[in-house]
Amino acid sequence: MLKLAHGAVLTPEDRGILEGLARETILVGARRELIAEGARPDYVHLVLEGFACRYKMLSDGNRQIMALLLPGDFCDLHVAILHKMDHSVGTLTKCRVARLSRATIMNLVSISPTVTRALWWATLVDEAVLRAWIVNKGRRPADKHLAHLLCELLLRLQAVELAATDSCDLPLTQQDLADILGLTPVHVNRMLQQLRAEGLVAMANRRLIIRDFQRLRDFAGFNPKYLHMEPN
Domain HTH crp-type spans what residues (predicted)? Predict the structure, then answer.
């Protein structure tokens, strides 16, 4: 609900509707598949706790992560329109998720125009993040790509009150980061060491500490407009 509040001015009734989505949830362990490529998508997943992702497995066994799903993120609101999944969704950490049927989603959009606007906003932001990732992958060098991702993660977690001003949990492994950035874990480690040496970031107990957000933002060429977190 905290994320959706950035997309619409929610009434108490709207908030009650959205809070009702989290009444029936399931706990899923780390590194588990929520829905496999090729499966029929009967449910939309709403991440309430933990980190999940959208990904594809290549024929050589490599994985490409195409999106991170953080608390408050829906996985493809309109996925039930498809006959089969064209990618997989899985957990990166232990997660608590709500599984919403297509009937539940249809009911949501029929009850409240404001909730409908918030859900459309969430879908459009997901697409904006994907566009930013495409630009990063195609045009930014590895060190700036990683810096851009770290800036994004901090702001996305701040939006749902899961990050401090200059730090947030980062439970991703170097392999996870490599699968996002299209690099090897060795290269990711080298880039992290570079950012540390330049006094931009630090890592401690799976927590990211950004030493100087403005410098990191300038280094990455990060512009947060694509996250559309301006107050309503």
Answer: 140-214
